[in-house]
Specification:
Elements (H helix, E strand, L loop, with lengths): L1 H24 L2 H20 L3 H30 L1 H8 L5 H30 L8 H28 L3 H29 L6 H9 L2 H13 L2 H45 L3
């Protein structure tokens, strides 16, 4: 009986995932998001003959833009589909299946727009014949992980706030905190405590921010010491390139898993 129930809930989640995925893929904003990256990839290839430089430019854009889009789309989709969600909640369905289905539908559609938008121009450019294919693949994986992370964080914010204005406000504040404010406070702390050993502090500070961690992950793979800065240099010094990649990926996956677990927990306890 328990096995049949688990299979039923799994099928339910997959159906909701497909509905959410196709619903977003029909949205004009998904096409705008896709076309933006498509044009960006084409322009960078025409302006840069060096693919490594194009990847660095893409990294600087993706690191900031992908978290913002994932946060806004996650909050927006939750609030816009609230009536449909309440209808589903009135059915004998598992709450976590409903919200996880919606979350994965949103995250997968945004990730697909990113991967296809950047992948198509680079494939036609002959990327598979280039030595930077692994660097570009890492960039796409990194962008997809950031999408899953910030979409999950957005769903957590929306689940915790019934008021749409407060939800959007907290979502934008979260993005600002992790993308801009965090770096400022982190650098200030390094300057203030410069007389003390800061290796462990810088490593811990990097892991506590998925955006900084993603940036370090890509720069370690590209092996561009001049752009690594103090945090990245310490990370490379202690872990080495390969181990640094492993540790970074583990931490990024933890940033995905923990918010998802909170979505499940919050959906069970929330009074709808």
């Amino acid at each position: 009986m328990n096995t049949q129930l688990r299979q039923f809930y799994k099928k339910t989640m997959l159906k909701i995932l497909k509905y959410s995925f196709y619903d977003l893929m029909r949205s004009r904003w998904s096409y705008v998001y896709f076309l933006f990256y498509l044009l960006l990839g084409v322009i960078l290839l025409f302006l840069n003959n060096d693919l490594s430089k194009a990847i660095i430019t893409l990294m600087n854009i993706i690191i900031i833009l992908v978290p913002l889009i994932g946060t806004i789309f996650g909050v927006m989709y939750y609030y816009n589909s609230k009536e449909f969600t309440e209808l589903l909640l009135a059915q004998p369905l598992k709450r976590s299946s409903i919200f996880l289905g919606q979350y994965f539908g949103v995250a997968l559609s945004l990730s697909m727009s990113l991967v296809l938008g950047l992948g198509i121009p680079f494939i036609f450019y002959g990327l598979f014949k280039s030595a930077v294919i692994w660097d570009f693949s890492l960039l796409l994986i990194n962008g997809s992980l950031l999408t899953f992370i910030f979409t999950a964080l957005a769903f957590n914010i929306a689940l915790s706030n019934e008021n749409r204005i407060k939800g959007f406000g907290f979502a934008i504040l979260l993005w600002l905190a992790l993308a801009i404010i965090y770096d400022g406070f982190f650098l200030m702390s390094l300057i203030i405590f410069e007389d003390y050993p800061l290796d462990q502090l810088s490593i811990a500070g990097t892991m506590l921010n998925p955006i900084d961690l993603s940036r370090t992950l890509i720069l370690l793979k590209l092996d561009i010491s001049a752009l690594l800065g103090y945090t990245g240099a310490v990370f490379k010094k202690f872990f080495g390139t390969n181990l640094g990649l492993i540790v970074s990926f583990v931490m990024l996956f933890m940033w995905v898993i923990l918010p998802i677990l909170r979505i499940v927990n919050k959906s069970k306890k929330k009074d709808f």
